[in-house]
Please model this.
Amino acid sequence: MDKRFIYADNAATTAVSEEVLAAMLPHFREGYGNASSIYKLGRDAQRAVEDAREKVAKALGADTREIFFTSCGSESDNWAIKGTAELMAKKGKKHIITSVFEHHAVLHTTQYLEKKGFEVTYIPVSDKGLIDPEDVKNAIREDTALVTIMYANNEIGTIQPIDEIAAICHEKGVLFHTDAVQAVGHIEIDVHKQGIDMLSLSGHKIHAQKGIGALYVRKGIALPNLIHGGGQERGKRAGTENVPAIVGLGTAIEAATRDIAGKNAVITPRRNRLIDGILKLPYTRLNGDRDKRLAGNLNISIEGIEGESLLLMLDMNGICASSGSACTSGSLDPSHVLLALGLRHEVAHGSMRLSIEEDVTDEDVDYILEVVPRVVERLRDMSPVWEKMMKGEKYE
Amino acid sequence: MLYSEKVLDHFSNPRNVGEIEDADGVGEIGNAKCGDIMKMYLKIDDNVITDAKFKTFGCGAAVATSSMATELIKGKSIDDALKLTNQAVVEALDGLPAVKVHCSVLAEQAVRSALSDYYTRQGIDPVPIVGEIKEPEE
Model:
């Protein structure tokens, strides 16, 4: 098969779509007004921002007044968690519940709050990468300020029982936030029906540009202001609106949520073929539950090899993928997500994540299934770990 | 991760990959837990390293530094091989990202570990000649 270029890392970021770019372009050179200005140029900009807000609200089943634009998913997470902590601390509630395998935007924020005197409970996950709502229920205390659990995991794509967790939080009168950066556009979401109090999302995961995100905050939650300044975002998050990016996010979320079931029906069989094809290799395992996962995600550990080498070789063959190996993160520890599933360090080092969308065709799947075994064999051939495994020796 | 062209070249076309069946010295360094293991095989004739081969489990830099280290010691005397520093490996590869410099240390230690094995096989205490082998920190 001839060399192809296949982008299979959509969980890392996505390309800005034609539709999004076309919507954004008029707001750079012609419609450049400040949305706070009184004249028509400004009013047009404000209208564009409010139009985008409506699209975001509609996609989430929220009211427009519940949507705040931010610069990214991490900002939304930080604001929701630190803001709620500040709000609830006044009522003497200084306990937060989250899970061990959240994105670092959540984990590093809760760790920061621990230093500020908050107590944090980290809920474990099953070996399939799923949280048991009962664990959340049992962790809730009188002084619990917030439960924050991700909607879908960024590495293994497992979808958490958000409805059950939200219901438990409601019953106990605890606020519930979810980091839905990986879920938006891939799973049907209705924040009001689901009882979600706060939700973070990011634009660049759904074909908007990098540097735009949003936070949904249910009406009635007096989240403290994040950026003090002018009256933008109703004074909660000051700073001149990034009109083109906001417009892009509106267009992107509308497109991403237009036909989620239809998209997933195309992606899932291709993803499953990738899983089955790669799992034919000996000493491999699928990380995360096979069914309760994002349609385009697969995460497989391949023993005897190291992830970064694998990614470099895939790159040489035109395939963009990612790994939970330590070497790709710049630290000595492999992915905290894979370790949370109970994987040994050496198995976690050899993991590979592919996150595909509809543009990855059946022929692309064939190509990946031709390249991966070849590359794995090559790396295993030069691996002393694989040599020992084949001799039946221990290599830990 | 910004790798130099030379690192990518030595990664995609590693020199001297494999084993030497009747090696005179074999060294292994690192552990799978921290993500890098290098195994080095040396053929030594009259104090000269006539052949060197390696097997590596690790990242791109680990493979490239192993490859470069074998290139730098092949045909050299043991004395010269013992003078090989990780810095020399880094320079020969036109540099390494800061977080990957430890891979070059592993490559240097893998050579020392194989030479240490060579002396041990001869019934000679390797420590005064080769020094202590430094295992990477976990």
